[in-house]
Structure formats: C-alpha cells, structure tokens
Design goal:
By secondary structure, this protein is α/β, with parallel strands linked by helices. The protein contains 16 helices and 24 strands.
C-alpha cells in the first residue's frame, strides 16, 4: 500500500565550472537531488495543441493566418478550450494521466515560412514572437487559466513547453529580432560544445545569444506591440522590478526567464518541459529553475485553495539523442551528454528528468532485457534517483517504435510497464494514424487526433488496454519507480518493489499468461492471506498457500494491494 509521505529534497551545490558562462552566481540553489517517486512513475500526456481538439472554431484563422499551408503545415484548429473540454469530460482521468504537457502556447509569428517543405505556419508553437502573450489561434489568458484550474480540480498537473534557445523567423508579417538578441550563424556542426550551444540549428531559427551577459534594450517591435495593446507601462515596470530584485544584467536570457516564470506566478503551472536544452548554455537552466520555484511558491501562497499539493516545481528536458548508451549498458555513466569535447550532466543544472530518446529503439528488446536494463540504470546505476520520460512516438523523433501502429498493443504494454516515467503522445492510446500522406519533413508525426476512428471497436479495445495500464501505474508507484525482479521466465512473471521513505509498495505482474482459470505462484512476494486486486480483470483474489487463483480471459495480470 502506498502511504502518505513527504519527500525530503537535498539542496546540492551546482558547479558552473566548464559551462562557458560568466553570469553572476544565483543567490539560492535550485532544489535538486532525489526525484519524487511520483515523477519517476508519472504518466505525462503530450498534446500538440493545434492537432488535438477544436473547442473554439472562432479563433481558427486569427491574425490573418489562412489555410494555405503545405500538407500538415498550417493551423488545424486545435486550441486551449479543446483541451479543457477533454479534461472536464474525464478523458485523461480515465487514462490515469498525472500531468498534461502541451506544445508552447505563447504567441508565435503570424506569417508563414516558405522553404523546401513548402509554406509552413507556426502551428507547432516553437517559433516565438512574444513570450508574454497567448497565441490568438490557441485562445486567451482566461482560457489558459480555466485549463489549469480544471486540470488541478481533477488532480492533474500542467507542464508548459518552454523555449529559450531561439526566436521565430522573420516573415512578411513579422520583423527580425535585433542583432544584439540573436545570431544569424554559424550553423551547428555537432562536434563540440560551442558548435552545438552557440550556433543556429537551422536557418529559420534565429539563435538567442544565451552565453553572453551583454545588456540589451527591448526589441522595438515588441515595445510598439505592447503600446498598441495598452500594456507597455505594466510590462516595463515588471521588468524593472525583476532586474532590481535579481541583480541580473538585462541580457536576452534573463528577459526570457522573467517572461517564462510569469506564467508560473500568474497561473500556477506545475513544471516545464524544456525545448532544445542542449543548444542553450547549460547554466541558464538552473537559473530558470530557481526563478520558477520562487514563482510557484508565490502562486501557491496566493492561491492555497487551487493547488494540488506542495510538490516542488518539476523540470524535464529535451536533450536530443540522450538516453541511448546509459540504458544499453547500465555500468556506463549514462547521465551526462557528450558534446564531443565536453560532457554535461543536465541533472546538475536544475533538471529532474530528461526525455529518454533511446526508448523507441529499446522497445524492440524482449520484455526482460528492457525491464531489467532500465531497472539497473534507474536503481543503483548512473540514473539512480533521477527521472526519465520514456515514449514510443513523438512529434520530433522520426524513428518512432511501431510507426505503422502494427504493434500497438505491444507498444502500450512495454511503455506503460517499463521502469521510468511515461510520455503518452496524443493518440498513442487509439493508434492515431501517422501516415501523413502528402506531407514532407517531420509533419507526418503531427497528424490530427483521430477522434472519429477512435470510436471503432478496435480503437476502443486498445484504449481500454491503455486505461487499465495507466490506472494501475497511477495506483502503484512501484510500477515505474520500483526495483524490478524477474520471478519466472514462462509464463513471464515479475515484481516491482518500492521501499523509499514512507512509501512501501509492491506489485506483481504477469504477461503471456494462459487465458481462463490459472493458478499463479506469487514467489513469496505477498504473504498468505493478503487480499489483492488484479487491475486488469478487476477481480479480487487472496493469497493461499503461496498461490492466487485467477479466472480471466486476459493474458495479463496486474496485481497490487
């Protein structure tokens, strides 16, 4: 049984050595160390906002955006209200979702970019124009407030996708950012820290000069925009107060840190998913973490009745290609990212977790190799006490596991039962089609949510499978955060045990079991007389003489108290 607990966080000194940053040291240290088992086991549902659900058709063509983009490269209509409607309907609760992560909701460039892929609008949210405003195609600040309050009301946290690496490109509708804010080159060469962090990923992403502390003025276009919107004085006053309090120089990165943490302070966002983390000077992230923690503390102080609990602010990073070696060989120091000439441990720069980009490859492994290797790395190995976020599909990874959805049940079982936290990408649970016929580049990963085909019998059956696995994981943190032990090879039976602080949780899982009546030896995992629930068949059983008797048509057993 999972007991009520309070996690004691260790405050560690963060070294700035070797980070190439001469910023003044922060006045306090971010809360890092042993990551809460809640987050090491959490189910995080990723939503590409524009492709999920259209809750307000009136904003579909805001700021002059039209429907003339290339295939899957224009706005489709999904918005904040659409997500809120699905939260309110209980869709995420039924899946056992602990947190929702949406693509960036800040205002993006208004125009389109034309390149080898055709005409592309900022439907994805990763081309910032104004970090202080909600994008009109997605809704309003009131819509965002309602989304967060609705999610919190159901015990679901909200993670914002944040960008410091780059601005949006200039278009016929959007002016370029000033040269003292961004660099136009050189292009990244991928062979050293400097050539990955201090460079432009692609030509259309002007790179913020995050390694410098030179003071800069606000971009004139932003000043004029705020003046027209009637909020220039307020924004400037808040910036003056921020820089006076922190004593940071008015460098681009600190402006953006202020703007990003305002969303936490104003609305109670629970955490950040950090975009393009390895392309930003690493010390920036611990500074963002410090300000975000302060902001969340202020929001909770002012809104005690709206918070879920007092868990610390959470940060998970996207470090492209991280997660391969550390899990393949648990004896290897799999925490640090190797830039070629330097290794950087992002966990020592404010992150609780990193997105595990190795999982789509590892998911092809047999169950025991996958589960055993991951448990070794996460329990006593290089990632001991830290978080990861596993996924089978992503809006960025063009090599997903099971791209054609021919192994949809296997994808669900391996992802939801693997050690580590889970990223369910929108539509995984109903085998969203990723054919993307006629699309180019990475657009095929970003098809619209298949609400119509999700009503078919096959999709409903698959959804029920995901829901059972999700609710089981939500009820038992040992699934993702516990120590794995194989009990027998055939039929495959294993346990997970989490004994940490005030948490004492044990689960017993069987896969490839015979259907119908079965007698399962529990291998001493549970004592005689223990009453258990099979979360898959919803049956209650009692351990007698070291066995449980189960009568179910399913080849899966998910036991727990």
């Amino acid at each position: 049984m999972i007991k009520t607990f309070r996690l004691l966080l260790l405050l560690l000194t963060i070294s700035l050595a070797g980070c190439g940053n001469d910023a003044p040291p922060p006045s306090t240290k971010p809360s890092v160390g042993n990551v809460d088992p809640f987050w090491r086991n959490a189910v995080v549902y990723f939503i590409m906002t524009d492709r999920f659900h259209n809750g307000d058709p009136s904003n579909d063509t805001s700021v002059g955006r039209t429907q003339d983009g290339g295939v899957l490269r224009g706005f489709s209509g999904g918005d904040i209200k659409g997500i809120t409607q699905k939260i309110d309907s209980g869709y995420f609760s039924a899946l056992g979702v602990d947190a929702i992560w949406t693509t960036p909701l800040i205002e993006n460039i208004h125009g389109a970019v034309e390149d080898e892929y055709g005409k592309t609008y900022a439907y994805h949210g990763y081309w910032p124009k104004d970090w202080t405003a909600v994008d009109p195609n997605f809704g309003t600040e009131n819509d965002l407030r309602e989304l967060i309050e609705t999610a919190h009301g159901k015990g679901i946290r909200v993670l914002a996708d944040v960008i410091i690496n780059h601005t949006g490109p200039a278009t016929s509708n959007d002016v370029a950012w000033p040269e003292d804010w961004v660099r136009g080159g050189p292009p990244c060469e991928w062979d050293s820290y400097e050539h990955i962090a201090d460079c432009t990923i692609v030509e259309t992403l002007p790179d913020i000069v995050t390694e410098r502390n030179d003071e800069v003025e606000l971009p004139q276009f932003l000043v004029e925009k705020w003046r027209k919107e009637g909020r220039l004085e307020q924004e400037v006053t808040e910036l003056d107060e921020f820089f006076a309090r922190t004593e940071y120089p008015r460098a681009p990165k600190y402006y953006i840190i202020k703007w990003l943490t305002d969303w936490v302070r104003d609305y109670g966002i629970d955490g950040f998913r950090v975009d393009t983390a390895k392309h930003v000077d690493a010390a920036v992230w611990q500074e963002l973490r410090i300000e975000a923690e302060k902001a969340l503390a202020e929001w909770r102080r002012d809104n005690p009745h709206k918070k879920i609990d007092d868990r610390p602010f959470f940060m998970v990073g996207e470090v492209m290609n991280w997660g391969m070696q550390g899990f393949e060989n648990a004896s290897t120091d799999g925490r640090a990212f190797d830039y070629g000439d330097r290794q950087v441990d992002f966990y020592s720069h404010g992150f609780d977790a990193l997105i595990n980009m190795g999982f789509p490859t590892h998911a092809a492994w047999p169950y025991e190799r996958l589960f055993g290797k991951y448990s070794q790395a996460l329990n006593g190995g290089p990632l001991n006490g830290f978080g990861t976020l596993n996924y089978v599909t992503s809006h960025d990874d063009q090599n997903p596991f099971d791209a054609d959805r021919s192994r949809a049940w296997e994808s669900a079982t391996k992802l939801m039962l693997a050690p580590g936290a889970v990223q369910v990408s929108y539509g995984d649970e109903v085998a969203r089609d990723m054919t993307g016929e006629g699309s180019t580049g990475d657009a095929w990963l970003r098809t619209e949510m298949n609400w119509v085909t999700a009503k078919t019998d096959d999709a409903k059956t698959l959804l029920a499978h995901w829901r059972k696995l999700g609710k089981y994981r939500q009820a038992h943190r040992a699934v993702g955060a516990g120590v794995h032990r194989r009990l027998q090879e055939a039929p495959y039976l294993f346990s997970r045990v989490l004994d940490e602080g005030d948490i004492d949780d044990t689960v017993l899982i069987g896969l490839d079991l015979p259907t119908g009546k079965k007698k399962i030896f529990v291998h001493g995992v549970f004592a005689n007389g223990t009453k258990l629930t099979d979360y898959y068949s919803d049956q209650v059983v009692v351990v007698k003489n070291g066995y449980v008797n189960l009568d179910s048509t399913y080849p899966i057993m998910l036991l727990g108290e």
